Amino acid sequence: EVQLVESGGGLVQAGGSLRLSCAASGFTFDGYGLGWFRQAPGKEREGVSCISSVGGRTFYINSVTGRFTISRDNAKNTVYLQMNSLKPEDTAVYYCVAEYKYRYWGQGTQVTVSS
Which helix (H) or strand (E) holds 62? Predict the structure, then answer.
């Protein structure tokens, strides 16, 4: 059974930091691209960042470039999202995804940034 379990969300003041983790099981982790999506209240879900299975190439949307860092630890089957200089507009439920021929989703973790 495929499982993606996020952790690390919470409430933080603007300018603060959080580190999200996503522990994966049930599939060949190092063969999958990994990423993070988020969905704010009343808005569509959007892709935030991703990291490739080979070479560790990374991608970020403009609004988080320079503030967020995605990384993966294939030995621990875990993907991370380090979020610095958080802004109220970063408030959302953050979802971990793993994709090869199919996209798997985690259950999400709430991130709330107060002004």
Answer: none
